[in-house]
User: What shape does this take?
Amino acid sequence: MLKLSQFYLICICLVMPFSTLQAEDKQAPAKMDSTRIQTLLSRLDKNVEGEKGFWQLEIAGVAVTVITDDKANRMRVISPVSSISGVEPKSLYRMMQANFDSALDARYSIAKGVIWSAFIHPLEQLSDQQFLEGVGQVVNLVTSYGSTYSSGLLVFGGGDSGKLQRELIDDLLEKGLAI
Assistant: This one.
């Protein structure tokens, strides 16, 4: 299982190398498209596989798939979390709580017998930073499944996750485990 300190770094490590991305590019495109996504993905992982509209890569040991459709102005970043078979109702309930406040822009979802982490967004309106943060959030939801169910450092107020995460951290500290 990933330690909380490692978990928080996934999102930070994804976005930091790209902070100067637009400064490097002489003229950033006005609208995101599949060609720009491909450029960003090749910077994330030199071994990215696929072609315009469908790519697969690995980030922090997590398999990630990116699908775009320029004509429909849609994109999604997805990663399998677990098979749905054998998942306790308590875990499903916790995922729904996380979707309310700690999953942020990514979400837990279910399709074809698999629990997925998914970030779905209109393509043209997506910025480089939003895309990279979305990828980081998808990876974080996979790695935090079963523990904090969080896509990053923030928890949107008004839900149950903040209290549950605090209890988890306090329990780890009581056991003498570093975060």
User: Anything to note?
Assistant: Strands lie at 49-51, 54-59, 62-69, 74-83, 106-111, 114-122.
